[in-house]
Amino acid sequence: MKILLNLLAGVALLVWGTHIVRTGILRIWGADLRRFLRESVSNRYAAFVAGLGITALIQSSNATALMVASFAGQGLIATAPALAVMLGADVGTALMTLVFSFDLSWLSPLLIFVGVTLFMRRESTQVGRVGQVLIGLGLIILALQLIVLAARPLTQASGVKVLFASLTGDVMLDMLVAAVFTMLSYSSLAVVLLTATLATSKVIALHVAMGLVLGANLGSGMLAMMNTMTAPPEARRVNLGNLLFRLIGCVIIVPLLPYIEELFVSASLDAGQITVYFHLLFNFAIAIGFVFFTERIAHLAERLLPAKPDANDPAKARYLDASALDTPALAISNAAREAMRLADFVEQMLAGMLTVLRTNDRELAKKLRKMDDVVDGLYTAIKLYLTKVSREAFDEKEGRRWADIVSFTINMEQVGDIIERVITDLEEKKIEKGRSFSAAGMQEICDLHGRLIANLRLGMSVFLHGDLSSAQQLLAEKVLFRDLERAYAESHIERLTSNTVQSIETSSLHLDLISDLKRINSHICSIAYPILEQAGVLAKTRLKEAHAPPASPSTSAPSSEQPATPEGRESKDSWQKRKPRTA
Length: 583
What we know:
Elements (H helix, E strand, L loop, with lengths): L1 H38 L4 H15 L2 H13 L5 H22 L6 H15 L4 H26 L6 H8 L5 H15 L2 H13 L5 H22 L5 H21 L3 H9 L5 H20 L3 H11 L23 H32 L2 H27 L7 H36 L7 H27 L2 H30 L3 H5 L1 H19 L3 H7 L30 H12 L6
Helix pairs in contact: 1-2, 1-3, 1-6, 2-4, 3-4, 3-10, 3-11, 4-9, 4-11, 4-13, 4-14, 5-6, 6-9, 8-10, 9-10, 9-13, 10-11, 10-13, 11-13, 11-14, 15-16, 15-17, 15-18, 16-17, 17-21, 18-19, 18-21, 19-21, 19-22
């Protein structure tokens, strides 16, 4: 049992090291790699080389597949050149498997030592992230040594020999076992290297190892398909075509396995080396054989996965690219773009609310209520997308931007909810009962509404650019809006005392409406708080500090001992201004 645990721990460490390298590379050069990949699809050969180079760098064909599928889903890459990229990605993985099969035990401690030193000293910088990549590479090499050491005792264990003896008679069974293990471990590289180790230790026969290698390739293709199950058909076609490449390759290679085995045995190579070279030969053969047929496979994939009719669903997120999650800066940028799109829907709802108020348009009211469902859907999508972004390697700026986007989307979602409730109240208390506001009341509401639209647009600009002066202006608008709301509420009370029929009938609705508009404005102005707080210009409290102890009854009259400071006069003036105004 201990031997098996050591072996599993070695495999887990290998997968973890691969993950560290992949995420580290994507965090440092993720945006550049994505741009290079997009610009390298002018022809099939450039696409092939791009896929090979990027996969060799990030140590994962699955990560490359996710990026390419995302580009295809967005219409940035056609299916045929995307398949050429995937052929290069498969060869890139095979080449890295060959590199790690060499004896690099001397390099592991050096990489880990240098990587840890860089990471601990400059963790939040690019240098620290390079150190993280070096740590991952060192862990991969160390894991391979652990796997070799753990596999050696297996050669003497009779129970293990009996277990692996069940894999000696059926190539299809061998392929199935390796495919399942590849999907569970999320790494074909780990499975192929483990197979090579077992073959070197004579735990499994060479033809079993070849079957496991073919299964690992199939498992990698199926894993990529599973990762894009919820993606649009345009994105899934890429991984489907790549899986078809591997399926066709296996169908061709399986009958030839005995001859290939004889050919390799005649060479002066051990079983482990033969396993790794067979993996490389298989992927090279597929690349050479199918690079000229990418268009035909693309047409077949398009027939198997036809595009869905364009439903033009506004609630569907457009910019939340799953392949960018390993690149925090890019993922945050995508979330910000989607948040601005959400704010556009809120602005449409806010503008439509006034139209409903003026024209009693029931159809528009219904559309605006449905639009709130769109806002809720986009808010949920952005929130879930941001929770998937790894925050471990955030620098201070990225961490603040992440929090700003979360705060902004929360405020916009709450504004949408308030607008929906206002529209419902208008239908129930105004439209159905055939009531209308007085001319003065309608003018006041239109004034507040116009200020709301202007403040929302200013708030979107503050969120997008983070300008301090605009944030200060937005907060000043909050104070002005509060004073106007109070003044218009008092004006409405004055109209009630004048027995204005329209004001009496709509009194409750009118007061609720201007109060809701004030709440909407408060949510909009909250966008300014993070920028003001970061600049250090946001007060912690709105209460003024007492400059002198309260006077006792015996000393309530002015005296020469009481200081007549400017602060005291200002406090008194402010109190006078805050007294209720009367008409």
